[in-house]
Write a structure and sequence with these properties.
Length: 281
């Protein structure tokens, strides 16, 4: 927590919630002179050190982990809005909700280009959530947009639809994660990127094994193949650009490539075939 005002607000919030809780007082007629829980009692309930409670409430420059904050939120009996407020002030991603809606919309220039392209195109935020996608991308990667969590890594490593869509899944998934690790090293200040890694490491053995290999790669162009329902194999050339105003965001565009025997004079028709519609990565 680098922001002193955030630390002050967090400390005041934790203290107020602690003092609002009713302590368990044994013995008839016994009363407490001070309201709420003592710091020692809250620390015991949360399973964390009383020093942490003191320092947080005093607004000191401490950095409790997301897991510590989760235990604190549980001990304070916080509701959903209060819990979100706690994590926001602490600058951490809630481990219970690593795929929450992006904190920022796509940069305007990036979103404008994505929506203007006839090819499948989408934007990635630092945690590799799709912050923007045009109709052609939603068609190509339909299953990715079926639920509430539009995270590229979660889709690739946990969705059966991704394995059906990507013919060379094992190689592509490993390459994708090596590219993400390069971004991850640049965006360590973004807590949701860390939360995504923790969530997938706990739930996907292929992700965990690939992550432990420590492979790093730039996100490069090249041919990308997908097996699309009703269309068969589709081939694209990938282009990746970064947004100048937000270098931690990127644009990914997939230029359709016609089969070898159909390429001459077919480029416009292939592009037009992805101008609108709806199917999935």
């Amino acid at each position: 927590m680098d922001n002193p005002e955030h630390r002050r607000l967090l400390g005041a919030f934790v203290r107020a919630r602690r003092e609002s809780l009713v302590p368990e007082v044994s013995g008839p007629g016994r009363k407490r002179r001070t309201p709420g829980l003592r710091r020692e009692e809250l620390a015991q309930r949360a399973g964390i050190g009383v020093t942490w409670i003191s320092w947080i409430e005093q607004g000191r420059d401490v950095r409790p982990s997301a897991e510590t904050l989760a235990r604190l939120a549980g001990a304070l009996h916080l509701g959903p809005a209060e819990r979100a407020y706690l994590f926001e002030l602490a600058g951490r991603a809630d481990p219970a909700h690593p795929f929450a809606a992006p904190d920022h919309d796509a940069p305007p220039a990036l979103a404008a280009v994505i929506m203007a392209l006839p090819w499948p195109a989408y934007g990635l935020d630092p945690a590799w959530n799709l912050c923007c996608a045009n109709p052609a991308a939603r068609e190509l990667f339909g299953a990715l947009f079926a639920g509430d969590h539009h995270n590229l890594l979660r889709f690739v490593f946990t969705s059966p639809a991704a394995r059906a869509l990507i013919p060379d899944w094992e190689a592509r998934a490993g390459r994708l994660l090596a590219e993400f690790r390069a971004d991850y090293g640049r965006n360590l200040a973004d807590p949701r990127a860390t939360a995504v890694v923790d969530w997938l490491s706990a739930r996907s053995a292929p992700f965990r094994a690939a992550w432990e290999r420590q492979a790093v790669a730039d996100r490069e162009g090249g041919l990308r193949r997908f097996v699309c329902p009703g269309r068969g194999e589709q081939v694209f050339r990938q282009h990746t650009l970064r947004a100048h105003e937000r270098m931690d965001f990127k644009l990914v565009a997939l230029e359709p490539i016609a089969p070898a025997g159909e390429r001459e004079g077919a480029g416009a028709a292939v592009g037009a075939g992805w101008r609108a519609g709806g199917d999935g990565p």
